[in-house]
Design goal:
single chain; BirA Bifunctional Protein, domain 2; Rossmann fold; five-stranded mixed beta sheet; about 20% strand; RNA-binding
Length: about 450
RNA sequence: GUGACCGUAGCUCAAUUGGUCAGAGCACCGGACUGUGGCUCCGGGGGUUGCGGGUUCAAUUCCCGUCGGUCACCCCA
């Protein structure tokens, strides 16, 4: 067996690259519709950029090394620190809100598994400088419009939304002490893949009363704001504020046309990281795959990284899980550009020369042209044209003999329809005038 | 980092209880088809059976190690 790519890394053969290009083209197109503009940063960053935000533990999960100048560097595992730096550096000059997106290749030194490699391309969409929930709704709409653009309807994809501040208010309301919240978050984050008895035990250890635990499990099953209000029963000012906000958010997403995808789901916590407000994850409705995308609001991150104090929110969407889902649903397309015209001619070098001249003229018109690089039987050339997926073929008359006449023929390889032209110029004019040879 | 399962041509797989078992289909290349393709027929290239040891008269088939793959845990992108 020949040496393959490193574990967790991918070779992109033309077919796979065409699929990747398709995914990226959809990302870019929808991002454009939402007026997000593209940026990029360096794939290699100072190690410190990541340890400062996530602590030293993260180093075990990074591709890092000392460069020849003795600097500690790392292949970027995420884009947020980079974009935070970039925005911070020009915060005053940028028109707010800042709407940026990027499609970086990210790296993570971790054992690979389904939907998770050591490298992937991840769309990052962020908004900086806007604290309103309208921005949260806008972000969600962009993510879901991408799903729609890929052909994934609300029967295929679910957007599960929560809000950390809402969850805190809920916890307080049901009687969970402030200092137990973090521990409760951790339990909630894993509640779906943990036996209930285990979760209950952990909640008890965190100091929750039996009644509060029961209430919490009820609340985690809630999927609308109205249900939440009904289940929790009592209310208070902090809870009211948060409920009003999430309700407005849900209304906004509906106004933006993606309401049927969105549901409230307090089990969504998004790790333990830097999120401060509304958080969300996109899943396939059947629950076969990992999260397709995830994100939320991180209003304090820029300031904590030593930059400006700007509210911020964003989401990431990787190409791996999305690709798996699209393939499984028969929705994967390819951005491959096929051969538009195949030029066929006789079996001698003089014939090949005529073929080359015509090919050059057609290429000058912008057409994708291929031909047999060595003189061969015309049947063979047609076989090659078919295999290449060419849309049309041009048959060049023999250079010397008059067999077959002196006219050029354009043949539609799908329909078999043929048209004759007196000379090469006429062929070029005909093909250049009728592009769309896809 | 931990655990389970798996590893035969580019792909999908076959090879009786270890004994001509290294094969088939697809793909690729060539020929049948000396001015027209995708069909058909024929032929060809390509594998030290992931790699390295061991057991045995004999291993693809058993054992160990290693590398790789898949899945789960950890963690999260």
């Amino acid at each position: 067996m020949a040496q393959g790519a490193l574990p967790g890394f991918r070779d992109f053969y033309p077919q796979e690259l065409a699929e990747r290009a398709y995914i990226m083209s959809v990302w870019r197109e929808v991002a454009r519709r939402y007026a997000f503009v593209e940026y990029d940063g360096p794939p290699l960053e100072p190690l410190e950029l990541y340890t400062k935000k996530s602590g030293e533990e993260i180093v075990g999960q990074l591709y890092n090394f000392d460069d020849k100048g003795g600097r500690q560097v790392a292949l970027r595992p995420e884009m947020t620190p980079t974009v935070a730096r970039m925005v911070g550096a020009r915060a005053n000059a940028l028109r707010k809100p800042v709407r940026w997106f990027s499609i970086p290749q990210l790296f993570r030194y971790e054992r690979q598994q389904k939907g998770r490699l050591r490298e992937h391309y991840q769309l990052n969409v962020d908004i900086f400088g806007e604290a309103s929930v309208a921005a949260d709704a806008e972000l969600m709409a962009a993510a879901l419009d991408m799903m729609r653009a890929f052909g994934l309807g609300h029967d295929d994809v679910r957007a599960r939304v929560s809000d950390r501040r809402l969850l805190r208010a809920v916890l307080t309301t049901i009687g969970a002490a402030e200092d137990a919240h973090e521990a409760v978050f951790a339990v909630i984050d894993k509640v779906e893949r943990t036996p209930r008895a285990v979760s209950e035990e952990k909640l008890r250890a965190a100091g929750l009363e039996e009644s509060a635990t029961g209430k919490l499990f009820e609340l985690l099953r809630v999927r609308t704001a109205a249900e939440l209000r009904a289940v929790i029963g009592t209310t208070n000012r902090a809870l009211d504020e948060r409920l009003a906000e999430i309700e407005q958010y849900l209304d906004f997403t509906a106004r933006l046309g993606v309401g049927e995808y969105v549901q409230l789901d307090l089990t969504i916590v998004r790790g333990l990281a830097y999120y401060t407000g509304i958080v969300f994850e996109l899943f396939d409705a059947k629950g076969e795959f990992r999260a397709i995308a995830g994100g939320g609001r991180y209003d304090t991150l820029l300031a904590s990284l030593g930059g400006v104090d700007l509210p911020a929110l964003g989401f990431g969407m990787g190409d791996v899980v999305l690709g798996e889902l699209l393939r499984a649903r028969g929705l994967m397309k390819s951005a491959a550009r096929p051969v538009e015209v195949w030029v066929a001619g006789g079996e001698r070098t003089v014939d090949l020369q005529k073929v080359m001249s015509l090919a050059a003229s057609l290429r000058a018109e912008g057409l994708a042209v291929e031909y047999s690089l060595r003189p061969q039987q015309i049947a063979k050339q047609f076989k090659a044209a078919a295999t290449a997926g060419a849309k049309r073929a041009v048959i060049v008359p023999l250079a010397t003999d008059a067999v077959g006449g002196t006219e050029y023929t354009i043949r539609d390889l799908d329909s078999g329809e043929q048209t004759k032209y007196p000379d090469a110029d006429a062929v070029v004019r005909a093909l250049a005038a009728a592009p769309g040879a896809r």
